[in-house]
Amino acid sequence: MADRRRVNGPSGATVPPVYDDEDLVSTQRSRPETGIRAIYLKTGVTPSASGSAYLEFEPREGSSGSGMKLTCTVHGPRSLPRSAPFSPHMVLSTHVKYAPFATKQRRGYLRDSSERDLSTHLETALRGTLIADRWPKSGVDVIVTIIEGELTRQAAQDQGIESWEMMNVLSGCITVASAAIADAGIDCVDTVAGGVAAMVTKDENDEPTIVLDPVPSEHGQVLAACCVAYLPSRDEITNLWFKGCLQTSSAESQRLLVSGAVHASKGTCQAISASLGEAMTPQ
């Protein structure tokens, strides 16, 4: 009689699978400096949530895979627990997390410092657009999950561009969260959109140029980058994240970098408006 509680191994010899490391091929940017990648945005993808959205970026040039994919769900507004202190306005809670399978190097189930930083920036960007006084003693949860990253985490760490990739991730989080909040029917002063601009050079002797929607692997060196959360109708910025090293006397370069990020966010806002308009059109 066979022992049904025992898990027997294979009868023959086996060879464990060995995965080759992905060779990251550096390709030059063929898009114009003011060009942004195409995106796909769809709302109402999670029926059980109050609002939801899915965002996918065009893959980087020379890549055989797909681009970055993000999804966002909004739960609320709903009443706060009885043990919570009184709040005259709506309490916003944001949560950004990479899926364990988002990158080739498997992510942990607990959030690391970079994911907590993304959550803080996202909360700051959304807090400036919500009309929170209309929902006293209420709370709303915004949960963003990065389903697939643009680069493998190990490749980004080896090239030293992981910190620059976080700019594009934050821009995508702001955009997909804004669409999900609009899908949930939460009143806002405007639709916020994320945009990124960077100052890059091909080599040390090359003059720096400002490009919109940068992909760090397509440039020789990234000197500085700027990510903004922009309200197009009100012409206001709710969050600004600047990273890099510029000369202290180059105030004009900083102004042009912020202006480029705002210009990139305007293109993203058009995609949000088109997606929301399509969702409101009766089938």
Structural notes for this entry:
By secondary structure, the protein is α+β, with helices and mostly antiparallel strands. The protein has one domain (39-280): Ribosomal Protein S5, domain 2 (2-Layer Sandwich). It contains four helices and nine strands. The chain has helices spanning 113-127, 153-159, 162-184, 251-280; strands at residues 39-43, 51-57, 69-79, 91-98, 138-148, 193-201, 209-212, 221-231, 236-244. Strands 1-2-3-5-4 form a five-stranded mixed beta sheet. Strand 6 (193-201) and strand 7 (209-212) form a beta hairpin. Helix 1 crosses helix 3. The longest helix is centred in the last third of the chain and has 30 residues, at 251-280. The termini are far apart. The mean pLDDT is 83.
CATH architecture term: 2-Layer Sandwich
The CATH topology comes to Ribosomal Protein S5, domain 2
Report strand order across the widest sheet.
Answer: 1-2-3-5-4
Oligomer kind: single chain
CATH superfamily: GHMP Kinase, N-terminal domain
Distance between the termini: 62 Å
DSSP strand tally: 9
Subcellular location: Cytoplasm; Nucleus
Protein name: 3' exoribonuclease
Domain Exoribonuclease phosphorolytic: 36-186
InterPro entries: ExoRNase_PH_dom1, ExoRNase_PH_dom2_sf, PNPase/RNase_PH_dom_sf, Ribosomal_Su5_D2-typ_SF, RNase_PH
What is this structure, in a nutshell?
One of its GO terms (biological process) is rRNA processing. Belongs to the RNase PH family. The protein has 283 residues and is of the alpha+beta class.
